[in-house]
Design a protein that fits this description.
Elements (H helix, E strand, L loop, with lengths): L3 H8 L15 E2 L6 E2 L7 H12 L6 H14 L14 H4 L1 H4 L8 H14 L6 H13 L11 E2 L20 H9 L5 H13 L2 E2 L9 E2 L10 H5 L17 E2 L8 E2 H6 L6 H6 L4 H16 L9 E2 L63
Antiparallel strand pairs: 1-2, 3-8, 4-5, 6-7
Helix pairs in contact: 1-6, 3-6, 3-7, 9-13
């Protein structure tokens, strides 16, 4: 890993940029083209431009997916009993500790990708702020995703997160719901956050020698297809052999199904919420956006943060149609798990069964695939 060794010693010595100035009328920023209600937000416009152009390259690709994953893995590191700083950037600053946690497998690649940008802009934003900013910007690279608010002013992290706070694909549903519940998330919010994030995501470390394996058919679109694909009756494992730890059978060649996703879609406590998002794009996007914003405040005092949401670019509108059944699949292949509502009527895509291509992998600053 290229980045990790440099960050810990560097960011702990940085001064914290003051962002608690009182709100004023909209002012012209020093760049002469942007305006901001709070002048402290002006410094973020060049950071956002750099992230969009040089980190995400204006795509809903591997780097954007990784930035969103990092939001969750950093923020969930807090517990009423075990402690932790939540959304404070500790996963970057104290990476030598947190990357040893089994649930953070693969985050080293994400940090190698984002790390040089965290260091580059360290005099402007703290690691905690950068992770949340990059996550918000990553979403608007993906058609259909919500534009979520961003608040600046997180202090430098003081310590590593305690271990065993990030839910894993091997966890049972009770364990997952209790972990989220301990920091104020309802079962419905868990479905929105987990399902929504997996709409634009893939797995690098679930199946050995398989990288960028999508969780659904449309990993570059923030859509409700994930809520259909996970409910299809599984027929095979990704590598054509037996299950890996945390893997369940998938129904679509080229995709991977996490055991935890399959259980969330079928458990009586969460099944109806899962099904309710099928073809409800606006509902799903709103619920997901609210959940991610809630994650961003874990361990923080919202009243002490500055609202800099105006620096987040406009969201890309949904450029796709409703969810569908993949070729050869129909309602007969759905594991119906919600007795309270009829499953939506969906069209089956024509043609033979398809194999979904892997997500192209990002290249880190060293020139190696990340």
């Amino acid at each position: 890993m290229v980045f990790s060794a440099a960050l810990s010693a560097f960011v702990l010595a940085l001064p914290l940029l003051s962002v608690n100035a009182a709100r004023t009328k909209r002012a012209l920023c020093p760049d002469g083209k942007n305006t901001a209600v709070n002048k402290a937000c002006c410094a973020l416009f060049p950071v956002v431009d750099d992230i969009v152009d040089n980190l995400f390259t204006n795509e809903c690709g591997d780097s954007a997916h990784g930035a969103l994953r990092l939001v969750f893995h950093d923020a969930i590191g807090i517990s009423p009993t075990a402690g932790g700083g939540g959304a404070d950037g500790s996963i970057a600053t104290f990476n030598a500790t947190e990357l040893t946690f089994p649930a953070n497998l693969g985050i080293d690649d994400v940090l190698d990708d984002l790390g040089p940008f965290i260091l580059k802009h360290a005099n402007t934003v703290t690691p905690g702020d950068f992770i949340q900013l990059a996550g918000a910007v990553s979403l608007v690279q993906c058609p259909g995703a919500p534009r979520i608010p961003f608040f600046m002013g997180r202090a430098l992290p003081k310590a590593a997160s305690p271990p065993n706070l990030v839910p894993q694909p091997t966890d049972d549903i009770t364990t997952i719901l209790e972990r989220f519940g301990s920091v104020g998330f309802s079962p419905a919010e868990v479905v929105a956050v987990v399902g929504g994030s997996h709409s634009v995501a893939g797995a690098d470390d679930v199946v050995p020698n398989f990288q960028g394996i999508p969780f659904d058919q449309t990993p570059s679109q923030f859509d409700t297809q994930i809520f259909v694909d996970v409910l299809l009756h599984g027929t095979n494992f990704t590598d054509g052999g037996g299950p890996q730890s945390g893997e369940s059978e998938t129904a679509i060649a080229g995709t991977v199904r996490l055991q935890s996703d399959g259980l969330l879609a079928r458990d009586p406590r969460t099944a109806c919420t899962w099904q309710s998002f099928v073809n409800e794009q606006s509902k799903m996007a709103a619920a997901f956006g609210a959940g991610v914003l809630k994650l961003s405040f874990l361990g923080q005092n919202e009243r002490e943060l500055t609202d800099c949401s105006e620096v987040i670019p406009a969201a890309k509108p949904a450029n796709f149609g409703p969810a569908t059944f993949p070729p050869t699949k129909s309602i007969r292949d759905i594991d119906l798990s919600c007795d309270e509502a009829k499953f939506p009527d969906l069209r089956t895509e024509p043609g033979p069964a398809v194999t979904i291509a892997p997500i192209p992998q990002a290249v880190d600053s060293s020139g190696d695939d990340s």
